[in-house]
Amino acid sequence: MSSGERFNAFDKKSNGVKINFTIEKFFYQELWFILLVTTTALMILLFFILKWIKRIRKNENEKLQTQKRLSELEQLAFRAQMNPHFIFNCLNSIQQYIFSKNELDANRFITDFASLIRQTMDLSVNKVISLEEEIRYLTTYLKLEHTRFEENFDYKISADADINQESVYLPSMFLQPFVENSIRHGIRNLKNKKGVILISFFVKDNLLVCVIEDNGVGRASSKALKTYDNTEHESKGIALIERRIEVLNIEQKEKIKLTVKDGFQNEPDKGTTVVLQVPILPIYA
Q1: CA-based torsion, 26, 32, 35, 37: positive or negative
Q2: Among 53, 66, 74, 114, which residue's beta carbon has the most beta carbons within 10 A?
Q3: What pLDDT was estimated at residue 224?
Q4: Which contiguous run of DSSP H or E holds residue 14?
Q5: How crowded is the C-beta side of 48, counted as CA atoms within 13 Å?
Q6: What gap in Å lies between CA 209 and CA 203, rounded to an integer?
Q7: β pairing state of 195-204 and 153-159
């Protein structure tokens, strides 16, 4: 039987007819369509991913900007809370000085106080100030207190010669509260000896180190001598400084460090030493 022969349902032989044809693929089975759909889907997916990333970045930037503004507002608030305490203490000093001294000395003291108030107003609006400005401010403050306390303490402010005081910066209104504490809670309570306050600035490991030392009665003895109001005033002042440091440290990688310890020079049983370490970063330089 040849391959071309066929038999029908009645068992009759018939010749088969061979027809060649091709079935075309549906368009969605074509390679070009598959590539087009895949590329389009990837582009849509990429568009939504990029949009999602952009939204996340925008939210993060908004959070950072909000945090930055909050930090600046908090620092201004902290300084606003400190300055009234400081001004009140200075006015009280003037009152005591006028009652106990002659008119010429009183006028001289008022002139120096006016200069200090002007510096306070100028510096308190700035987030950071130069080391030169800080030293000038502390010098003016110590000069007033030295006069008011009838020169019963000596003071010295020094900075390493290799420090460019105009280009090294630190947070404004940071050190004066500690100097005030040294005078009011350490030096003032001394008996039978003269007080000493030493303030020094130097650079170590890319840090501006500020050291405030006094040979006062020390923290334990001072606490025993304080009234409730004085204790509250000091604790609030130190707490405000510590809170400002926390806020400032949020904004930068290198942190500001504050250490308060007992001791003066090589005498661990006397006085108090405050050490503030400020990173020398672009924000401060």
Answers
A1: negative
A2: 74
A3: 62
A4: strand 13-15
A5: 5
A6: 6
A7: parallel
- List the chain domain ranges: 77-279
- What CATH number should be reported for the domain whose range is 77-279? 3.30.565.10
For the chain, the C-alpha Rg in angstroms (whole number) is 39
- Round to whole Å and give the CA distance between 236 and 25: 84
Closest listed residue to residue 259, CA positions, set 189, 222, 207: 207
Structure tokens at 212: 């405030």
CB 190 within 8 A of CB 99: no
CA distance 128 to 280: 12
Contact 117, 87 (CB under 8 A): yes
Residues whose CB is less than 8 angstroms from the CB of residue 86 and which lie 6 or more positions away in sequence, other chains included:
120, 176, 177, 180
This prediction's pTM: 0.69
Q: Which residue has the tokens 């005081």?
A: 165
Which pLDDT tens digit goes with each residue over 15-68?
666 666 666 666 667 787 788 888 888 999 998 899 898 888 887 877 777 667
Q: Could you tell me which residues are beta bridge partners of residue 203? A: 208
